[in-house]
Design a protein that fits this description.
This protein has about 250 residues and is an alpha/beta fold. About 35% of the residues lie in helices and about 25% in strands. The chain is built from nine helices and ten strands. Helix 3 packs across helix 4 and helix 5 packs parallel to helix 6. The chain starts with 11 loop residues before the first strand and ends with a helix.
Length: about 250
Amino acid sequence: MMDHSVGGAPPIQIRDLHKSFGDLEVLKGIDFDVRFGEVVVLIGPSGSGKSTLLRCVNGLEEPTAGTIHIEGIDITDPETDVDAVRTRIGMVFQQFNLFPHLTVLRNLTIAQRKVLGRDVKEAQRVAKEMLERVGLSDKIEEHPSRLSGGQQQRVAIARALCMNPDMMLFDEPTSALDPELIGEVLDVMRELASEGMTMVVVTHEMGFAQHVADRVIFMDAGVIVEEGSPSQVLVNPVHNRTQRFLRAIDVV
């Protein structure tokens, strides 16, 4: 993994981040850093701002105020080429967003060729390597409709990895999946974490948070209420709001 950062700056630095949609303030002053190789899991009720936060980090939403530095580069600065910075960030969404009319191989090569300028041979080599990483080498010529939801999401992860990102953002990657398919996607994510990939994951999968996260951040109503190690936040939460949330989903 290449360290593009300026002077060893953390991959992600967020300062006093605000985001409003009209009169609705969704993020109300978020501050945190993510270190290289760290897995940060964001938890919290629906509507707490977790997905909006990820979309700001990826440059899909423009913050109303505050700054986001990716490897030392301020992506909130109008002078910054956000598209260039975005190539360092892999993003996996709740919906798989695969092109239905293209084979798995074409799905994995198209951005490599258009964005990174790789030739066909190189793009295909990388695609095959990444499909192997997610255990789907045998599906290379299939169309997405022929795959299960879990397989489609693993293809989406492979597609993100084809861009050789320095970090990965996951926005509830298993919430659209049938329960029996969730494990295969979480296994791939666990594997990535064990290889040292910097990851920020929004999820309701508390087992994953407990066993894979270096740090858990609990968000509610657009603010960070509590953060710490999985055992601190999930086992011994300090705040009433965290305790209530975890009780509601049967964790404590």
